[in-house]
Amino acid sequence: MKSPHRLSMFSASVKTIRSDQNVSISSCPIRYYGVEYNNIYIKFTNNKLAICFDAMYNVTAVGDCIIGPKPVASVDFSILQTAVRSRFQNVSGTSNCSVKFEAQLTSGRFTLNLFNFGTEAVMSVTSTGAMVSLMLMLIQVFLSTAHVDISGCRDAGAVYKPGSVVSSDPNTCFTRTCDQVATVQNSACGALETCLGNGSCGHGAICTVTANTVIDIHGKLKTIEDRCSYTLLSAPSDPDFQIVAHFRERRRTDVSFLESVVLQLNDVGFHIHLDQGNRFVSLQLNESLLSLNSSVRSIQGVLMSRDHRGVTAEASLSGSTASVFFDGHMAQIHVEGPAVKTLGGLCGKSSADLSRLRSSDSSCQKKHQQSPDSSIDCMAVAERCSLLNKPPFDICHQHSGPQPFITACSQTLCEYPALDGFNCQFLEAYARSCQLNNVTLKTWRPGASCPSPQAFCRDRTCSDHEFCGEKTLGGETRCFCRAIFASKYRTSDTLGEPTVCNQSSASVILVGCLLEDKGIKHSALHLNDDTCRGVMDPLDHMVTFSFNGTNSCGAEVTTDGNKVIYTNTIKTGNITTGVITRHDQVYINFSCIHTQPEVKTAAFKIKDRSVEANITTGAWNYTLTMRAYSDPGLSQVVDSNTEVQLNQKIWVELNTVGLEGGLVALVTDSCWATKDQPPNSTVRHDLISNGCADSGDQTVKVMGNGLGTSNSFSFNMFQFSGSSTDVYLHCKLELCVKSSKSCEPTCSGNSRKRRSVRYSATFISMTWTK
């Protein structure tokens, strides 16, 4: 600690004190740890010198005293009118006077100065001999040459150093502090502020709910791990008012999201439901939609409005106000007034037990597991979320710490893809929280590549098993299937429910959002009769196809013994242009079987009538299909219901999708049949060898081999001797790059024309059940 800088000095007379006495220091009062004294009491004991401020030293009741070693004979006392500029750490200003004591000790000369710095004071000690032991406020210090800050504040007999808190009540936000110049200062919330009940003041209490995270009014983060409903806000002073949040899954089964918010006014039996489409639904009015715009509308005392950013509802709450904003992703609750201190729910008490705030439906608590999304870069996510630590967001930190928002952002986007606006949603939530605290935030969206705030999926209505999301990042929106709902269909590779059969009708229900997942418009689908189309339910978006005895819609009727089989097909219309198509072709067979006299129903799932494989060969990716037909026109597909006789001619077509016909050709190198599934079975019958009909089977004919992206061949049906089991058909294929030479094999005689550049072979197999 540096010495004081002495500006000028005017000395008073020195008084030599040899016995106990009281001396006045009114011309230079000293504040000793927060109490100002005008007198000093000097007492000589057997082995000590006591300099006290409040009374003569009493060993049984030590007061405000400085106790040091006893002088040899006497103490010289003087008051100096000294101008000293402070160079003491934590002490500011100028001292205009000081009280000085000098004494001869057995070990050397001892000087003690008490400097008056107004509300502060400093004790300076100089010893020419050994280190001096002093007792200050019952604390022993050892000094030779040093300065001690004896400033402070007193409260209820306790001493507080400058810069410390004297007392604080978090419920009232009333705080008493000992400031840096050793005076007690009282502080409380401003006239426009509210005590949040945690010792901090704000322009009301703010609770933010985004995805499955809740940041309560105390800045504590909670995570919802199920798909239940929870009480967000309640007030003991108004038990009939509650705000409830519903959570559901979206693209993943293991991450839930805020789906909707409900304001419950139980005293009048009135509930207001705010959903993802930014609609207001009054449950009291038979779930009717309420027409709202930017003008404020009062409904049962709740002030409601809607703009391009979202919807807002404001209600009175026992002398306070509670405002709820919802934009389809994020809900922000802003409460102002005395009710803030007693708020309950997820937004209120940080120690609340989640189970007590959850709805009683236990089915929503089931945990689901899903493999992590390997496309998510959690390091990049953390870096983006940490933007909240940087300008211009730093201006918000004094009112609302960013860490819970950063944690919520990182935790969510490390598990869930940054689609549907979530790449900016947590930044948006923090910015809005900042603005609710009356902080002017500079422009931040261009730097973060975020669009202007806008309600997500506004006016789009999805069913209960759907949610609204983006088709592509920042692109158009549509209704997607919720992950748990869709899982049962995706696991079984179906697009809808099993066939429903009655005595004279049959129907199939397809899931609209699953069709959209595959880029299929339900309006493009029809039955065998293209005038029979599906009907979409406007509420649940399920698509129903049906036929009956009055209108068979082209159903094929066949008999099998005492069974009558009705079969129809859901298919796409003719949307092919030229020789290519850019749309998925849909063929979904469904059948009903009637038996006499009792009618029984069997439902058939969608099954391929062919073998299909995604092939990667060389530089091209393509899809290869092998189908069997019973006619040379390749129109009568052979499937599991087709009866095939021995020696009946069968045509097999090998067709590709995704190859450029001007560049490559498909060559069938060889085909053979086995009685076992592995293509290298020891028992085999060759049909095609080296691109030509094998000489061992005179019934084989090969058509169009090497001429384009498809070819076919025919043979007479057979079975292996001594066996009635399945026949497995295998083909080895090659891609031929077209050049000046032909890709077509030469099959006359034993010679064969050399083909152009070839790629490695591909195998495809199909099973034939006799």
Automatic annotation (TrEMBL):
It holds the Pfam family C8. Keywords: Disulfide bond, Signal. Residues 500-754 form the ZP domain. SMART domains: C8, ZP. InterPro entries: VWF/SSPO/ZAN-like_Cys-rich_dom, ZP-C, ZP-C_dom, ZP_dom. PROSITE patterns: ZP_2. PANTHER family: ALPHA-TECTORIN-LIKE-RELATED (PTHR14002:SF50), ENDOGLIN/TGF-BETA RECEPTOR TYPE III (PTHR14002). This is ZP domain-containing protein. It comes from Amphiprion percula (Orange clownfish). The lineage of its organism: Eukaryota, Metazoa, Chordata, Craniata, Vertebrata.
